[in-house]
């Protein structure tokens, strides 16, 4: 068993270079022990099914060396930057930042509106913009649950999946129950019957179904908090994915559903407004569609925040027990947060199904939930602008590293850890309660911890 | 009836593996109050280390199986324990005073790091090993169905029992065990009385990881394969086991592990294999709703 090596948490500035060197040597030794087998030896199933292995001591040496040098650099940087800490910016600079902050949101909005005009000929960028906006919408949706109501939801992707599958199934076959349609043919919502309006009818239907599932999840978890809530929502998300994966008759199992119809070109929206149909126009249309959906999400969130229900969410996030003592109905508060958050997830899912034309359980894994959650956390849990910027940074970053495909999730995980260490409250800033009493008492952090917030 | 007994044996073996992982969850939850999301991936790393060590030992000419197994066990435990220690040092210790969700999110990040690290370093394909321990006994043969007890199953259960005995002794009788229980109750008070809290928490992670490594090795022996993604599902199931047994309670974790193993095996045997994970997760939800303290847990007092 490896004995723990004492690492002083805060370096004594008086300690000299010897200390840094010692620390670096220890780090390098730990790295050597960690990576000797995992990196130094590479296993693979050989041609006859027998396992073979070969050594990679060069890589091992490089990594251990990198850890050694990295440890020295970090320690030196810590000494350099560490004590400076919170620098007070001069008032004029802070004022400038404030003005910039106020202008940022409108500027981003105008930029978003102009994206299809600027990048009209770059299909790839247009596609990417649609993807970013989808995640902005998902982030804003999850922000209601996590950021405003303070309920850590690790299974948000379930609602995204419910929305996408609801839309796909309804759009393909009317109602997914053949004998039901045979018995009551007039109830069947046939996509073709609805013509170009089908999307607009099915979009809210998908959203409502997702909201229903939000309530279904919400009921059992009413009493749970914090970590337990997180694990149950995670299990819920996995259950939904596994059911989709295994219920082959309905969902097509791992093969997914393909050929999801979108308003067809000749009779579609483009024809209605007299624009010739082309793939680019389709992308432009999809971009404005998701932008509109995202902005609706944003608008609804901002409005809800000023209503009693929004205040109740924020109060619940700060202290649930106090909330209950004040007579706020926790049941409706929690359920409404889950339902509304899920509804926007469902809208995004329906949009995703339309855009892709193909969905499969692959798109709704836990990684997706973690990515959306990371966007919300990076954005500062509750700040609308922060979430949008975080989605842009995250998805843009993912695209930049597309070449290093297999390292992507590795880097993503590492970024999540580092973010929690350096800026646990988010990079962009966090949203304080909208209203609070003018006189704020100082509470020591140890007391805050007791509250199990 | 024979079929039932066969499933009972299989379920108990699977349950021992879950129980070993569950102990890591429950210990960490007891002492720092966080779900160590990366623990499932520590188990996966343990499986990989065992596989690689086994391969190296065989290729340098060792042939005596008990010696190989013992060496693999020791190496896997030591290296995986170091992984557990490093994870705690890098991802959790700086966050101990942070807000409540921070360690959880950091743990999710760490889980991604570990599983993708082994994907990058060892490849995404499933790694099969030939059966290392062969043979077994036929307990009862009714003509059309024979109840088998294989040697692997015996090894898995015996190793689990022996390690649990050692581990229970450590927690109940040694200085470290007392320190650990003291930190569990009140860290500040323990620190005032001269317990090195940081060191105790580190050791908790180390022991949890070592037990997870044993589970990983047992998994390798029993199923004959490892892959980089196996930690996620196994981790959630072991967590379910810890919750079922009452989180924070060590015998509870083992009991919960056995229960989950049995439920999963019987569900696969009598209902459907496809939905066995759904069954395990549904149990997690049901337990948390109706019995949040689990089978052997203490009720949590809510302080305002």
Q: How would you describe this protein?
A:
The complex is a heterodimer of chains A (453) and B (304). Chain A is mostly helical and 453 residues long. Chain A folds into 2 domains: 17-81; 119-428, no CATH class. Chain A is built from 19 helices and 4 strands. Residues 1-11, 186-192 and 447-453 of chain A have low confidence and may be disordered. Chain B is mostly helical. Chain B is built from 11 helices and 4 strands; from the N terminus they run ααααβββααααβααα. In chain B, the strands form 2 sheets. Chain B has a two-stranded antiparallel sheet with strand order 1-4. In chain B, strand 2 (136-141) and strand 3 (146-150) form a beta hairpin. The longest helix of chain B has 31 residues, at 2-32. The N and C termini of chain B lie far apart (53 Å). Chains A and B meet through helix 1, strand 1, helix 9, helix 16 and helix 18 of A and helix 2, helix 3, helix 4, strand 1 and helix 8 of B.
Give the tags.
heterodimer, A: 453 residues, mainly alpha, two-stranded antiparallel ribbon, two-stranded antiparallel sheet, 19 helices, 3% strand, disordered C terminus, B: 304 residues, ABC transporter involved in vitamin B12 uptake, BtuC
Question: Helices and strands in order, then pairings?
Answer:
The complex is a heterodimer of chains A (453) and B (304).
Chain A: H1 17-38, E1 41-45, E2 51-55, H2 57-81, H3 91-118, H4 123-148, H5 157-173, H6 178-183, H7 191-194, H8 198-218, H9 226-246, H10 248-251, E3 257-258, H11 269-272, H12 279-306, H13 308-318, H14 320-325, H15 330-356, E4 358-359, H16 366-378, H17 384-400, H18 408-422, H19 445-450
Antiparallel strand pairs in A: 1-2, 3-4
Helix pairs in contact in A: 1-2, 4-12, 4-15, 4-16, 4-17, 5-8, 5-9, 5-15, 8-15, 12-13, 12-15, 13-15, 16-17
Chain B: H1 2-32, H2 39-59, H3 65-92, H4 101-122, E1 127-128, E2 136-141, E3 146-150, H5 151-173, H6 175-185, H7 187-192, H8 197-223, E4 225-226, H9 230-245, H10 250-270, H11 276-290
Antiparallel strand pairs in B: 1-4, 2-3
Helix pairs in contact in B: 1-5, 1-8, 1-9, 1-10, 2-3, 2-4, 2-8, 2-9, 3-8, 5-6, 5-8, 6-8, 9-10, 9-11, 10-11
């Amino acid at each position: 068993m490896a004995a723990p090596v004492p690492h002083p948490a805060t370096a004594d500035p008086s300690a000299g270079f010897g200390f840094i060197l010692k620390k670096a040597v220890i780090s390098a030794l730990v790295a050597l022990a960690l990576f000797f087998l995992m990196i130094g030896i590479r296993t693979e199933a050989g041609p006859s099914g027998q396992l073979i292995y070969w050594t990679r001591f060069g890589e091992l040496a490089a990594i251990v060396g990198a850890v050694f040098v990295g440890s020295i650099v970090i320690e030196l940087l810590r000494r350099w930057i560490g004590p400076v800490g919170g620098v007070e910016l001069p008032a004029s600079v802070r004022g400038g930042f404030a003005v910039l902050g106020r202008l940022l949101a409108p500027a981003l909005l105008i930029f978003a509106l102009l994206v299809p005009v600027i990048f009209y000929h770059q299909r790839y960028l247009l596609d990417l913009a649609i993807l970013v906006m989808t995640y902005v919408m998902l982030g804003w949706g999850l922000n209601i649950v996590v950021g405003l109501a303070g309920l850590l939801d690790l299974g948000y992707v379930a609602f995204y999946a419910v929305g996408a599958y609801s839309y796909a199934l309804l759009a393909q076959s009317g109602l997914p129950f053949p004998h039901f349609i045979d018995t009551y043919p007039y109830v069947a919502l046939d996509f073709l019957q609805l013509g170009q309006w089908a999307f607009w009818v099915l979009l809210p239907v998908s959203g409502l179904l997702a909201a229903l599932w939000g309530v279904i999840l919400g009921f059992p978890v009413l009493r749970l908090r914090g970590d337990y809530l997180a694990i149950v929502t995670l299990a819920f998300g996995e259950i939904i994915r596994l059911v989709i994966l295994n219920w082959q008759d309905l969902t097509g199992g791992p093969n997914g559903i393909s050929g999801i119809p979108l308003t067809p070109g000749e009779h579609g929206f483009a024809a209605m407004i007299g624009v010739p149909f082309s793939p680019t126009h389709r992308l432009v249309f999809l971009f404005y569609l998701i932008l509109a959906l995202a902005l609706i999400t944003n608008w609804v969130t901002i409005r809800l925040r000023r209503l009693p229900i929004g205040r109740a969410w924020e109060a619940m996030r700060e202290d649930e027990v106090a909330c209950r003592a004040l007579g706020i109905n926790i049941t409706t508060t929690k359920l409404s947060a889950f339902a509304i958050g899920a509804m926007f997830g469902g809208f995004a899912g329906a949009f995703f199904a339309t855009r892709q034309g193909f969905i499969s359980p692959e798109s709704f894994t836990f990684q997706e939930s973690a990515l959306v959650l990371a966007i919300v956390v990076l954005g500062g849990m509750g700040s609308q602008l922060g979430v949008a910027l975080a989605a842009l940074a995250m998805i843009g970053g993912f695209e930049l590293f597309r070449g290093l495909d297999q390292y992507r999730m590795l880097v993503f995980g590492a970024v999540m850890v580092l973010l929690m260490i350096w800026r646990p409250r988010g990079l962009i800033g966090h949203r304080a309660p909208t209203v609070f009493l003018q006189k704020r008492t100082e509470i020591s952090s140890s007391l805050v911890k007791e509250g199990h917030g | 009836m024979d079929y039932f007994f066969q499933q009972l044996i299989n379920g108990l073996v699977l349950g021992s593996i879950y129980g070993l992982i569950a102990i890591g969850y429950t210990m960490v939850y007891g002492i720092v109050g966080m779900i160590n999301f990366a623990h499932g991936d520590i188990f996966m790393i343990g499986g990989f280390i065992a596989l690689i060590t086994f391969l190296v030992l065989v290729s340098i000419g060792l042939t005596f199986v008990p010696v190989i197994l013992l060496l693999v066990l020791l190496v896997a435990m030591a290296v995986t324990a170091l992984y557990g220690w490093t994870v705690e040092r890098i991802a959790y210790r700086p966050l101990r005073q942070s807000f409540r969700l921070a360690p959880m999110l950091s743990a999710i990040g760490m889980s991604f790091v570990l599983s993708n690290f082994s994907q990058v370093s060892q490849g995404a394909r499933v790694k099969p090993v030939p059966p290392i321990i062969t043979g077994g006994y036929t307990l009862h043969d009714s003509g059309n169905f024979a109840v088998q007890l294989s040697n692997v199953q015996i090894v898995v259960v015996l190793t689990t029992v022996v390690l649990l005995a050692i581990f229970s002794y450590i927690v109940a009788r040694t200085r470290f065990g007392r320190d650990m229980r003291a930190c569990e109750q009140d860290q500040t008070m323990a620190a005032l009385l001269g317990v090195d809290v940081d060191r105790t928490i580190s050791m908790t992670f180390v022991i949890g990881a070592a037990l997870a490594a044993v589970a990983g090795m047992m998994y390798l022996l029993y199923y004959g394969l490892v892959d980089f993604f196996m930690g996620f599902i196994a981790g959630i199931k072991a967590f379910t086991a810890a919750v079922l047994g009452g989180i924070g309670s060590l015998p509870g974790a083992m009991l919960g592990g056995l229960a989950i193993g049995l439920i999963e095996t019987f569900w696969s045997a009598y209902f459907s294999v496809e939905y066995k994970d759904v069954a395990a997760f549904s149990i997690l939800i049901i337990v948390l709703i109706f019995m949040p303290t689990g089978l052997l847990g203490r009720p949590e007092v809510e302080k305002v």
